[in-house]
Design a protein that fits this description.
The chain is of the alpha/beta class. It is built from eight helices and six strands, in the order E-H-H-E-H-E-H-E-H-H-E-E-H-H. Helix 1 crosses helix 2. The structure holds farnesyl diphosphate (FPP).
C-alpha cells in the first residue's frame, strides 16, 4: 500500500471527550497527548516521512486563560518527555506558526528540542503552534513585498515556488493527506496554501479515541483515492503491467 509522504492532522475533540465524561476539558487534552505519542510512533514505524500536527491555533489564544495555560504546560511536558524518544527514533522536530507569542519557557524547550533533533532524518514531526494560515500567508506576502522593495526580486519572478519559499513550511513538501477527527468538516485556517491538492479524510472519532487502528483505516482509504491534480482519470491511471514485465 502507498502511504502519504506528508500526513497532516487536525486533532479535534479533546474538550468533547472530557465533557462526555464530566471531566474538566484539560483531562481531554491530557488524553490527547497520549494519542499524539501513539500516532507519532505508528507513523514513524510505517515510514511516513512527514507528520504535521495542528496543536494550537492563533484563534486558540482566545480560550479561557486556565485552558491556555494548561495547554502550554502540557506542551512543555510533552517536549521534555519526548526528547529521548525523538532521539532514539531519528525524529526531527520542527515548528510552524508565530512561535514568538508562546510563553518564554515553552519557547526555550521548543528551541532546545528543535536544535537537539536537527540532525535526525527518519521522520520530520512538525507542530503547528500559535498557527493560522491567513497569518502565515500575510507574513509571507510582507516578506516578498520587502524583497521587491529592496530590488532583490522582480514582481514577474514571483511564482508558486518562490512564494512557497516564504511560508513557514518552506522546507516541507505539501501534505498529500489531511485527517480531521471529531466529525467537524472544516479546514479551520490550517495550511490553506499547502493543502491545495491534499486528500481530505474526516472521522467521527474524537482525538483521544483516535488510535493506530483508526489511523490504518484512514490510510487504507488514502490508498484507494485516485489523485488527479486536475487531470482526467485516464491520464493519471497507471498502465496495467503486462505479465513478466520488469518492475522499474
Ligand atoms: C482540539 O480539541 C484540540 C486542541 C485545541 C489542542 C490539541 C492539543 C493536544 C492534542 C495536546 C497538546 C499537543 C501536543 C502536541 C503536546 P478541542 O479542545 O477543540 O475539542 P472540542 O472541539 O471538543 O472542544
Amino acid at each position: 500500500m502507498s502511504y502519504p509522504q506528508h500526513l497532516a492532522i487536525i486533532m479535534d475533540g479533546n474538550g468533547r471527550w472530557a465533557e462526555q465524561r464530566r471531566l474538566p476539558r484539560i483531562a481531554g487534552h491530557r488524553r490527547g497527548v497520549e494519542t499524539v505519542q501513539e500516532i507519532v510512533k505508528e507513523c514513524r514505524s510505517l515510514g511516513i516521512p512527514h507528520l504535521t500536527l495542528y496543536a494550537f491555533s492563533s484563534e486558540n489564544w482566545g480560550r479561557p486563560h486556565d485552558e491556555v495555560g494548561a495547554l502550554m504546560e502540557l506542551l512543555g511536558l510533552f517536549l521534555k518527555r519526548e526528547l529521548q524518544t525523538m532521539l532514539a527514533n531519528d525524529i526531527r522536530l520542527k515548528v510552524i506558526g508565530e512561535v514568538g507569542r508562546l510563553p518564554g519557557k515553552v519557547r526555550e524547550i521548543l528551541e532546545q528540542t528543535v536544535s537537539r533533533t536537527a540532525a535526525n532524518s527518519g521522520m520530520v514531526l512538525t507542530l503547528a503552534l500559535s498557527y493560522g494560515a491567513r497569518n502565515e500567508l500575510l507574513r509571507a506576502v510582507r516578506d516578498v513585498a520587502e524583497e521587491v522593495r529592496a530590488g532583490r526580486v522582480e514582481p514577474e519572478a514571483i511564482d508558486e515556488s518562490c512564494f512557497a519559499g516564504h511560508l513557514d513550511t518552506a522546507e516541507l513538501p505539501d501534505p498529500d493527506f489531511l485527517i480531521r477527527t471529531s466529525g467537524e468538516m472544516r479546514i479551520s485556517n490550517f495550511l490553506l496554501w499547502q493543502l491545495a491538492y491534499a486528500e481530505l479524510y474526516f472521522t467521527e472519532a474524537l482525538w483521544p479515541d483516535f488510535s493506530s487502528r483508526e489511523l490504518h483505516r484512514a490510510l487504507e482509504e488514502f490508498g484507494r483515492r485516485q489523485r488527479r491534480f486536475g487531470l482526467t482519470g485516464a491520464q493519471v491511471q497507471k498502465p496495467a503491467r503486462r505479465q513478466g514485465e520488469k518492475n522499474h
